[in-house]
Batch of 3 targets.
Target 1
Amino acid sequence: MDTRFYITTPIYYVNAEPHIGHAYTTIVADVMNRFHRLMGYETYFLTGTDEHGDKIVQAAEAAGTDPQTYVDRISRMFRHTWPKLNISNDHFIRTTDPAHMKVVQYILQKVYDAGDIYFDTYKGLYCIGCERFYTEKELVDGKCPDHDKPPVEREEANYFFRMSKYQDWLIEHIEKHPDFIRPERYRNEVLAFLREPLEDLCISRPKERLSWGVPLPFDDRYVTYVWFDALINYVSALGYPDGELFSTFWPVAQHVIAKDILKPHGIYWPTMLKAAGIEPYRHLNVHGYWKINEGKMSKSRGTVVRPLDLAPVYGVDAFRYFLMREMVFGLDANFSEEALIQRLNSDLANDLGNLFSRTLAMTAKYFQGTVPPFGNPVLPEDQALERQVQDAVSAYREEIPKWAFHKALMAVWEMINAANKYIDQTGPWELAKDPDKKGRLQRVLRTLLEVNKTTAVLVAPFMPQTAEKMLERLGVPVKALDLRLERDARWGSLVEGERVQKGAALFPRVDIKKWQQEKNAEERKRNVEKSDESQKTSDLITFQEFQRLDLRAGVVLEAERIPKSKKLLKLKVDIGEERQVVAGIAEHYAPEDLVGKQVVVVANLKPAKLMGVESQGMILAAHDGDVLKLVTTDAPVIPGGKVS
RNA sequence: GGCGGUGUAGCUCAGUCGGUUAGAGCAUGCGGCUCAUAUCCGCAGUGUCCGGGGUUCAAGUCCCUGCACCGCCA
């Protein structure tokens, strides 16, 4: 059996701060890394930041600084976030590391020498404002969607990677290795994409357009562009071509990504590896998105919960547990503070925390806080619980390698629940009353202590701090990363006579009723502040300024949905003249309900195109939380009537 | 427009190869216990399995079709 394990997260693009998506990917990788350590594997865990490209240059400019200063700052934010989440990475790579850049150049040269990189000129539609090419389809009405200007035809020469050459090889490889890309839905997506002919990949930018990158070794007028630079980190971090880490860990490489970067990892990267003469990675593991909603209790707007901020509030372990328990790997999941509190209260405080607490309390009370021997007699319920523990351990070992973390955790919790039930069945407080039953009482509490120890070991990859805390109180302190399942989850591995300590609750409960009240109070306060603010002088306008608005009453003549748009409706409105207006109200009004409705229109708004449809004005509406209500007149007025 | 996914209890979701009375957790109600963080244990429900049609002795499951939402591609 191969007992090495190499896991990577994507290197995160430093044009934004770390958010929950980054955190989940990284925590998943961390749990996997810790799990394999627990199983006795030799592991290597890599994360880092992607720091080249024009978006970085733009972001730096926007921040009023130079690219190097900017990427240093953002990269540092990532590097400092991970320890707070107890991430156990062995290395943090940056694409601006000189060593990485050298490997990128080495591989470029190698692929170039092999004839898989060629030079070609092409013509395209180029927007000078954006400094980029557009395809016909990206243009709106023949104009750049950002600058509203027609692009110019421009010829540019660039280097291309002959990706198409490896299409058939890749299809065959994916078909031969069913778990090359998993879960299956993403494998199918890649295969679907590969049914169409693959185009070659443009991998360069002329330096006059982009200087913030790795220069091509065979043409210093160019730098390499995005993916060629970024993906190579997975091998450059291991010291490719001849690093010892590379020969040890690359053969077992696994990547974790979110579904938005499936194509580069599922298609570009394997073909790049093939062209460079490197064997493909073992597995690409793809997860879904966290949909952030604020739960059904609070519909507050403008109070976007930043999930990462909740980690210190509720505890890193609770946060990690929630993410791993709540998401089925591969599928999307919902994130809300309520759901987090719910999990914390019921799974962590009530089930696990309370089991630990009552076990230790009884040990203190009946055995002066020392681990008792396995007394006698042994009854069937003892054996049943022991079996349950074995079942949980097997399920755990089986599910985690399949990335089914929720199932592994469910199995652990079945064991925890069984232990709680066992206490009820055996009633230690009754046994304690009868001195003749001391042996039985010993058996019961020792059994419980052992279950708690196994629990501590099993939750260690998910909640390392909790595991350490539990083990310390059980009198067998071990660092989470030094735990080994075979040794430390072995039944009877506690030390008889060792002192255990009750200590504070592992997971204090959160009073959800109180939390909701506070939340509501906050929200009310914010709303009051908001309306106060808007009445303050800061944004006052003069009457003359108001007069510049040409507001007119009108009546809706026609209304229809704009295809493919969720929000937009196309309206014909009579405001003395007929106007076509696009309004973002489709989520609130059905077209048929609008015809004949009195509305107020801003008539002198500069016309604009929305989804390719011209809008000559704007309909006024009032916001009420998530709800939107049209502004109308008290009674019908003649279309075109001035509103003032 | 093409391809794919999803739709199951109040909420979040499982449901294998078509096979008994459709399940779990949370939330709710009732009962029990007192070691424990007002926790734990037991019991109890509640379903148009998105709609319609078909195949079959038998359909949540397979086929066709419609609707809704989502994703990928164009």
Target 2
Amino acid sequence: MTGIEDVAALAGVSKATVSRALSGRGYVSAETRSRVEAAASSLGYVVSSSASSLVTGRTNNVGVIIPMINQWFFASILEGVERALLDRGYDLMLYNVTKTEAERTKVFEYFLVRKRVDAVIAVTLEITPEETSQLLALGKPIAGIGGPLEGIPTLSIDDVEAARLATEHLILLGHREIMHVGGDVHEQMDFHVHSKRLRGFLEALQSAGLPADEHSYVATRFDIPGGYTVGKQILGDPRRRPTAIFAAADEVAIGVIIAARELGISVPDDLSVIGIDNHPLGAMFGLTSLEQRPDLQGEQAVEWVIRQLEQPGWAPPPVHSVVPARLVIRSSTARPRPRAS
Amino acid sequence: MTGIEDVAALAGVSKATVSRALSGRGYVSAETRSRVEAAASSLGYVVSSSASSLVTGRTNNVGVIIPMINQWFFASILEGVERALLDRGYDLMLYNVTKTEAERTKVFEYFLVRKRVDAVIAVTLEITPEETSQLLALGKPIAGIGGPLEGIPTLSIDDVEAARLATEHLILLGHREIMHVGGDVHEQMDFHVHSKRLRGFLEALQSAGLPADEHSYVATRFDIPGGYTVGKQILGDPRRRPTAIFAAADEVAIGVIIAARELGISVPDDLSVIGIDNHPLGAMFGLTSLEQRPDLQGEQAVEWVIRQLEQPGWAPPPVHSVVPARLVIRSSTARPRPRAS
DNA sequence: CTGAAAGCGCTAACAT
DNA sequence: ATGTTAGCGCTTTCAG
């Protein structure tokens, strides 16, 4: 394996100069630099990251802890993080920590045990206070996405606001019988997403002077089958059927629409459905949705940690800060035509 | 940061002994070992991976190159790979290489440039011969999943056989008008999956003495919307409608079923649909499916590369070897009742 | 079974 | 602007 010494010899300079020329740190004359670069590439030289990490203390790796990969939201975040990281010249170490205790400890051990990452990005991680302090004890930049992590700067959209916007959109279209299909407020891994979206919904109704009771809201699993099941129930009885539904997530909304279509209910003609996320499948179902860009959140988190790495002293926005996603009503997709009023 | 020297001092032994005790390599008396371990954990000592990599030449990292994350098949592989790697004590470096040229070269540069992985797993990577040789030139264990990579041991299911099994299942149930909805044979990133599944389908028909013409097969995009679009076309005309459909992937099958239900066609009563993959959403649509376990392929690939790492001399099965997935007909879900004979 | 010592390949002062 | 030199923290002969 060709090392820095070979390059130095070929270029007729010292190892130090090669290091400076290739890393861009320190003064090197343009002429020398190009000679070194030529030598390096002709030899196919590449720095040994272990050697350079050993002396600099920097690994150029960022660890990502994520609870699942096989769901649109999480996969999107991961894609965004990966893209941003690669772009900035960092590598991504993936830790898919599931709920099982054994795996959790293993991951935390690895992180704490191996000093191989410069920073950590934690995605909707549900962790105990002690796990948090273990993370913090690393003394490395950390950013969270999607769930407030006590003591850790976290990114997420403004759920209350998003829900309110969605609901107001329906109200503006003339709907008065609007129902909310959301997640179970008592669910694990909630991070108050469900309760916040419910709150935004209720606030919007209230502002518009519309009544809200326990029939205005129903909880289900946060995926397509969840929405489907509930959709069949809600829409089965024509007398109780709302004219519009605000689903807390596109996946739920899609389930509802599938159910509706099977029942011969046309969306959006007979029933308006709006969701949050802008899930790619939405287009197929004529779904109106507020755009949440998990990939952008991922990119943002990367910015946060890298900025801390590269300009010491800089600190991300305070704990639990909430960065609103771009909320876009794709009105072209939504043409609700309420029967009521 | 506490180093090996501190541990040695506290345990009253030399650095060398600490190293042996903690790494498990070399002779250390049981008594000494436990003293060292106690010292290490009381100090919260962890080895510096850069230092140890520098001297051993091993990083304990495996690189994974994958073209996309946000799709069931790919995410499943990634989950399987991650699980297996974590289990064996390796870390996973993720490289999501999309089609854009810039990103590709960047990834390949990183791999070639940084010597930070011990092995590489390439998922359905469509690479040029020179990229292949770049990979091979790394001189590190490599395994591919899903697409035959010239010169690289690759895992995939037996597509022809899977398609044949699925089709035979329908034939056995009495169907004679069976249609295949598959991917476009001329598609990029094909790896012959589409043509192989088509071939298996045709062979099954032929063996059963059933006719097959150009109307027996239709190509579409390999996802839910793709299946939906085609479903509407195929099933719209009651006279041409087949009694059964073999979809080349569950996602396509699900699209077809959604279309069928909207048309008032009951699955599986009026129409049998079978797919390949055992996609989790299948259950919601009463879909019969052959089980493909991408996560298991991921785990297998990990075994291959790690085995090469840990027992030099061992070699994985020859190039392009095909490992059949577990093919499970979930007959409980499928109750086709053909109108024809 | 344990210790001493020689690096692994590079970077960062410090000189020049 | 470039060269010299002293390690970074660990593993691994080689002695004992």
Target 3
Amino acid sequence: MTHDQTQPRDQARQGFDRTSGCGGLTTKDVGREVSLAGWVHRRRDHGGLIFIDLRDRSGLVQLVFNPAKNPEAHRAADGLRSEFVVAARGKVILRDPAQVNPKLPTGEVEVLPSVVEVLNESLTPPIYVAETADTPPVDEPTRLHYRYLDLRRPRMQRNISLRHQVTMAVRTFLDRHGFLEIETPMLTRSTPEGARDYLVPSRVNPGRFYALPQSPQLFKQLLMVSGFERYFQVVRCFRDEDLRADRQPEFTQIDVEMSFVEQEDVLRLMEDLVAEVYEKALGRRLTRPFPRMTWHQAMADYGSDKPDLRLGMKFVDLTEAVRGSGFRVFAEAVAAGGQVKAVVAPGAASFSRKDIDGLGEFVKTHGAKGLAWMAFEAAPAGGGPAGGDQLAEVRSPIAKFFPPEALADLRARLGAGPGDLALFVADQPAVVAAALGALRLELGRRLDLIDRTADRFLWVTDFPMFEFSQEEDRWVAMHHPFTAIRDGDLPLLKSDPGAVRAKAYDLVQNGVELGGGSIRIHRRDVQERVFDALGLTPEEAREKFGFLLEAFEYGTPPHGGIAFGLDRMVMLMAGAETIRDVIAFPKTTSASDLLTGAPSTVSPRQLAELGLAPSRSE
RNA sequence: GGAGACGUGGUGUAGCUGGUCUAACAUAUGUGCCUGUCACGCACAAGAUCGCGGGUUCGAAUCCCGUCGUCUCCGCCA
């Protein structure tokens, strides 16, 4: 608000204070004298008449320059080019009915400027800001390098604005429900569990490091100990791991924690939150309540802890049916304690041998050793008197291992009709889940079986508390080590850690993990037992988490919470393919920022001050 | 750490079974013409030595090796 009044530009702008946004002008404004300012979106020069589409954040409006009516303004318009910054004052007039543009919200009116001023010129932009269906999409490195131009595109303006709507709706909802937004440190302590930390050297404490938070997990729990009862934060989190389309090194969480709640309270309230956000930001009503599924069920039926329910193709478990079968691959997998499961791809019996071999290669990248298949060919049209349901034949390299009645039994279990293709994976349960789960999604894409208009939410509950890490040769927390254990599973902690279920839950939307949380341990003795199960000695536990254990001795209320991935949530709402499209300044998959050039080298002096010496430099 | 795809005028692609490729198309840009367009139209022009380095060859955008960058996936991450 405190612009420097001595700036020459401000002087030049005298008399150009904007009266309205371009995109909001309607027939109600006809006759008004308006002052607009914005960017030249497009220029159409008819020799005589010049049309300029003037764009600001609110949208577009057409300016018309008529040399006969206002030669001076027309001359000024002659020099305008794409992305010039312009102020214009003129009268809003009604368009002739024949000249109305129904594609524009402002298409019934136009502005007849009397004065135009170029506030700034622009080079020819390397990005098509005024993109249309036939301007080629600009590739991502260019977009990231000129991000400020990329963000001018209407599509990106919508995404970023949607993101704002979402965070506003979140804050409004949580405020109304008694949550306090409390900031937590960005320079904090490195913790051993979980992702790799981003480290920040301490100048005043040479040789020591802060870590940027992977999440404010411990702080929000401490805030519960402090008695704030309901906390939230829209907070940046950092994880130094390899990136994906939906993973950035820094990302934003909607972080929530509540005291005196059980799992059910959290799920209900958070479901209300998500529903309200959708309603406010997109005007869309969600189907409630969200369905729920245990982790075991999700893994058994979809091979994933975040199943995409827009797609059918549940797994069919054939382990018992093929036990001792003549097909040794199946029989041996079952004998070794493995499983045989299948998915049925509707209408895919027409896949060529080459297509199917390609699918075989695909499952191999997900750990399977191979892919068995049976194509149930449809009988030719108008075939026998039995009608179209008749199978012409079963095309399959493995059919010969099954007698006709076994084949019929398999087909019945698969529920495969004519024209369907069944694909089998036989292996240990984890491999079957990974391979068949990935295959299911791949087939859904290839066969276009995913309903893109649907939003399928799902709560996944009862996650295992631990999973075994081959790499570290010990049990590690699947969620995090502060997660409470389901009532009754506590005795299993020592005897069978793999069977212990946690009070942990994820919210999944369309196969994307939107958020996850848990009820936390609030007693020191229980927390110590979990650390013990994780292989942390009491000394290590005290060294790493002493402050938490200590806090737990001063009256910690039962508490729990959740954190949503804001970037992913907005991505799905915006229909974007990657969270990079809903983050103003994202990084590449190698975690660099193409706009600023970060990360960069620093001067030897900076390093010396920090007491650092690079062991390797480029 | 691993696998794959891509890198050619400002932008996006084609060319890539080696030779009239003296690099094509679209779009953007410039100039001229055009008074109702809105993806304006028409004409003309300018603009790339094909990411970078090396090799094979009489000859490389094209083949090979290396390297850099971007993207997708596995591992990793919740």
